[in-house]
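Try this one yourself first.
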């Protein structure tokens, strides 16, 4: 077990299976020293635990928890490309999309679910740049979607 996966286990977490693509793309691709993930939904065992807009059907706290699930799915996608998460040099960038009710402005707080998990798992290597964007709708009516850019060791 890698040190990263051991740390996840200490936190009571486990990497899921890679979420199969919903369309014509790969869950993650490597280009040089970087791995880029596709947008990862908060899928758990093949389905979304919650659907709807944050600030309406889904609370900000629920969405924050779902953002952490997205992070685990993204890490599984990264691992599928590099084989061992201990090769991660740094989480460079996180982009998060929050399906938002018209008056919801708490997108950064929702994406803290991803950022806080990465910090707990990777420490300084998990500190990243980030965008948190409110959108009208996401695939499958998901409340949140997250993608990563990760630097890896050769």
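Now uncover the answer:
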């Amino acid at each position: 077990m890698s040190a990263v996966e051991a740390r996840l286990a200490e936190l009571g977490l486990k990497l899921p299976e890679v979420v199969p693509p919903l369309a014509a793309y790969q869950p993650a691709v490597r280009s040089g020293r970087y791995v880029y993930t596709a947008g990862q939904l908060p899928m758990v065992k093949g389905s979304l635990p919650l659907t709807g807009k944050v600030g309406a059907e889904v609370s900000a706290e629920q969405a924050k928890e779902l953002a952490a699930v997205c992070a685990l799915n993204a890490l599984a996608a990264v691992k599928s490309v590099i084989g061992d998460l201990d090769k991660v040099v740094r989480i460079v960038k996180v982009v998060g999309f929050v399906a938002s009710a018209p008056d919801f402005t708490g997108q950064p707080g929702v994406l803290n679910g991803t950022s806080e998990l990465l910090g707990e798992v990777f420490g300084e290597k998990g500190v990243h740049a980030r965008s948190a964007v409110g959108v009208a709708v996401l695939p499958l009516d998901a409340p949140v979607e997250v993608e990563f850019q990760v630097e890896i060791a050769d």
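Discussion: The first strand starts at residue 28 and ends at 31. The chain has three helices and five strands.
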